[in-house]
Amino acid sequence: MTAATSSTLFPQGSTPGSYAATPRDADAVLDGLDPEQREVATSLHGAVCVLAGAGTGKTRAITHRIAYGVRAGMLQPASVLAVTFTNRAAGEMRGRLRQLGAGGVQARTFHSAALRQLQYFWPKAVGGEVPRLVERKVQLVAEAATRCRVRLDRNELRDVTGEIEWSKVTQTVPEDYPAVAAKSGREAPRDAAEIGRIYATYEQLKRDRGVIDFEDVLLLTVGVLQERHDIADQVRRQYQHFVVDEYQDVSPLQQRLLELWLGDRDSLCVVGDASQTIYSFTGATPDHLLDFRTRHPGATVVKLIRDYRSTPQVVHLANGLLSQARGRAAEHRLELVSQREAGPDPVYAAYADEPAEAEGTARRIRELITPVEQGGGGVPASQIAVLYRVNAQSELYEQALADAQVPYQLRGAERFFERPEVREAGLLLRGAARGRSTDPALADADIPSQVRAVLGTRGWTPEPPAGSGAVRDRWESLAALVRLAEDFAGSRPGATLSDLVAELDERAAAQHAPTVEGVTLASLHAAKGLEWDAVFLVGLTEGMVPITYAKTDQQIEEERRLLYVGVTRARHHLTLSWALSRAPGGRASRRPTRFLNGLRPGSQAVGARTLGGAGGIERGAAAPGGGGGVRRRRGPVHCRVCGRALTDAGEMKLMRCEGCPSELDEALYERLRDWRAEQAGLLGQPAYCVFTDKTLLAIAEAVPGTGSELARIAGVGRRKLDRFGADVLALCEGRELPSAVDGEGDDGAGGSHSGDPWQNSTEK
C-alpha cells in the first residue's frame, strides 16, 4: 500500500507529491520497473506468486501488470478482478489503474465483491431481496449473551464477538466451536461452551430478524456458487483473471470463495509476505501463500527484495529481527536490500517510567518538526508516527504531544469523511460547483482558490490557529481538503470544481481520507500498509511486545512479525523506546523486549554462544591452567542502555552510564549487601574485598543465571567466581542461604557450597 502521507487516488510518480502522465502505450507501462517488477508485469499466463518484502513496490508491480495486460490487448478490463483487504487499498488501486490507462478494471475488497454478486444473484438463487446487512454485530451479541444468562463486560463482549467472527471465517459452526478452538490453541475469553451457546443464539437472532452480518456475505456467496453451477459459470465467464493482494492475510473462507471464482483455471496472481502475517487472530493464515506452489505446480514465483522505502540502517534492523525468527513463515523470510542512501542509525532509548517516555518522545518529535533553518529536522508532522502495541497506550502520547504543542491525529478514530466539518464542507463545495456561490469572482478562479474561498467561510485560514483542541482539529480537517484540492488541480489541469466534488464522493465511499497535517498515533496493527519518514516505536517491554497473553511459539513469532511491521514503516528516522517502570517512583523491573536482544547495543541474542561469540564480541586466550577458562571481554565497553562507549571504570563495571536509567532489582541488592557483610566478617576483611558496591549494583541489575553470565560482570574474576559464585547465583535465584559458619576451605573462602560453583545453577 501507499505512504500514509502521500497516498492519494491520483497515482504518483517516483516521489511523494509528483504525478506521472498516462503511459503512451503498453511498453511505456513497463518504464521505470526494476527487473523483478518487470517480470511480474509481463508474466500474464498461468499462476503467478509474488513474494514481496516490505517497501519493495508490490502495489506498483501488480497494477502495472494489470495495466500492461490491458494496454497490450491481452486482458479485457471488465474480465479482471483485483481483490485486496481494505476499501482504502482498493480505492488506491483503482486510481493507479485509471492513471495507467486501465480504467474499468474491478478492484474491490473480498466483502465488496461478494456483496455485489450476492445482491445481483439473490433474486435468481433465493428470491426476494438480500437480507439487511448489520454493520455492528456487538449489540446482537450482547442480546444473545443476555438470553443465555451470561453477563459480559465491555471487553468480554468485544472478545466474544471476535470469537464469533473467527468461527465464521474458519467455517466453524456453533456446536463445533469448543473442540475446534481447543485444537487451534485459542485462549477463549470465556468458557468455550458458553461462547458456543452465545454464538448459536446470535445466529438464531439474525434468522428471526432477517438480517446478515459481514461474514454471512462471504458464507452466502460461497453457498450460492457451490449450489448453483449455472451462477458459478456465469461469474467465471465474467471474470477471467484474478489478482489478490496481501495474500498472507487470506482466511479459509476467503480462500474458498477465491477457489469458486477461479474454478479449474490457473489465471491467478497472488502477492504477499509471510513475514507480515499479523492477523491470525482473525483467521488469517500464510499457509495459502506458502502452499501456492503445491496447489499450482507450474506457477511462476517472483521475489521482490529491493526495498525502496527504508534506509540501509532501518533495513538492517528489520533483517536482524527476522534472522532470529522461528517457524514456517520464518523459513520463507526475504532478505531485503535497501535501495536508498544511508541514513541515521536507529535510536534506542530507555526511560525511567511511561510518562517520561511519552514526554521524551514528544520532545524528540518537536525537534524533528522544527524547521531546518531553526536548527531542527524539518520533518513535516504528517510524516511522523508514534506506534504502540495496544490502543490504551495512546492517552499518554496524546497528552504529551498536546503539551508540546504538536498536532496529532488518531488513526482508527472518527473517520475523516464522517467529521461534521468535512460533511459541511462537502455540501458547500457541491453547492459552489452547481453555481450557487454568492461570490462571482469564483467563477474564473482555479480549483484551489475556489476551495479556499468556500472553506474560508467556515474557519479555514492560511495560518493554523494557536494551540490544540477542537478549533485546531477543525482547521486541520479543512486544511487537508485544501491540500487535496491543490494536488488534484496539479494532476488534472483541465478539471473543474465538479470533478473535485466527484473525486471527494469517491474517496468518501472508499474511506480514503486525505492527509491531516499532524503526527499519527496508531497501533502496530493499524499501521500495516502505511509508511512515514520518522517512526517512534514505544512501550517495547516484555509483557507488551510480546504481549503477555502470547504463550505459544506461534503467538510469540506473530508478535515478532508485528514488531517487524512497525520497523519497516520507517523511511529514514527510527526510534525504539521502553520504560523501566510504569509510574514515576516505581520499581525499575521492566526489561526491553526480547526481540531486540543481539540488535540493540549492549545486548546479546538469545541462544547465542557466551564464549568466543560471533562477530569478535568476545575474544582472548583460555585462562591459565587449562582449557575452558572464562574468557574476558576485550575492546570497548558500551552502555547497555544508550550504547555510548564507556571510559569511566565505575561505568564500565556497571556497563551503563551513571545517568542512564537503572534496571536495579532492589530486593536482590539488599540481599547481596547483607550476604557481603557476613562474608567480610568471616574473612576479617573490609566489605569491598568481597565485592565493591559497583559490582554488587551490576549483579543486581544483570541478575545473572549462570556462572558464565556472572563472570562477564567486571569485578568478578576467576578467584571470586570460584569462592563466591555459587552463593551469588543462589541469591539471584531467590534461594535462602544457610548461615556461613563452619566449612570454609583452607583458602578461607566463605562460600557455603562445594563442587563446580555454577554447575547446578544452570539446571532449572
From TrEMBL:
Pfam families tied to this protein: HRDC, UvrD-helicase, UvrD_C
Gene3D superfamilies: 1.10.10.160, HRDC domain, P-loop containing nucleotide triphosphate hydrolases, PCRA, domain 4
Catalytic reactions of this protein: ATP + H2O = ADP + phosphate + H(+); Couples ATP hydrolysis with the unwinding of duplex DNA by translocating in the 3'-5' direction
The keyword Glycoprotein belongs to this UniProt entry's keyword annotation: no
Biological processes, Gene Ontology terms: recombinational repair
Family: Belongs to the helicase family. UvrD subfamily.
Domain of life: Bacteria
Top EC class for this record: isomerase
Residue ranges of domain UvrD-like helicase ATP-binding in the record: 31-311
InterPro entries linked: DExx_box_DNA_helicase_dom_sf, DNA_helicase_UvrD-like_C, DNA_helicase_UvrD/REP, HRDC-like_sf, HRDC_dom, HRDC_dom_sf, P-loop_NTPase, UvrD-like_ATP-bd
Domain UvrD-like helicase C-terminal: 312-572
Protein name per Swiss-Prot or TrEMBL: DNA 3'-5' helicase
Compositional bias ranges of the Polar residues kind: 1-17
